[in-house]
Amino acid sequence: MKLTAKIKNELFDVLIEEKLLNNYLIKIKNKEYVVKVLYTLNEYLVLSINNKINKVIFLDIKKRYLKILINNEYIDLIIDHAFYFKLENILSIAEKKEKNQLISIRAPMNGCISRILVNIGDKVKNGTILMYMEAMKMENEIHSNTEGVVTDIKIQINTNVTSDDILLLIKN
Known about the structure:
This protein is mainly beta. The protein has one helix at 81-97, and strands spanning 2-7, 10-20, 23-28, 31-41, 44-49, 52-61, 65-70, 73-78, 102-106, 111-116, 123-124, 129-135, 138-143, 148-153, 160-161, 166-171. Helices cover 10% and strands 59% of the residues.
């Protein structure tokens, strides 16, 4: 499969050859990369590239355009429809293989955290109230959307947050 990549405003041909399920040989600028799709992690796709773990975040997916961030470097890919459907398949397989996934609980709106009801190590169920947030002069409940163990709390009481900020992580 042949794609075009834009890296630092330069266009390059990218050749992708599938070796085994979710294992690829990618050639860019006369360099070869052995890529293995490991799993998805929140909004990231975790890959092994030449035996080095990389997180890839998909910033924008359109019919023929994919903008990704790999290790703090933006890469624009111009893709064809066949690769778009292949990418969807890769992501769905990676999601199924995922174990012990970290789930981000995010702020649903701008506000201020008024109470935190859980601690690191606490077991929670889907629907458990995790914390309260004051927004628009109302106290809003923040619920767990999964069952698991709280692994990290990213905020403190009286922290101002914006919509989509990560509040805590739960390992399911």
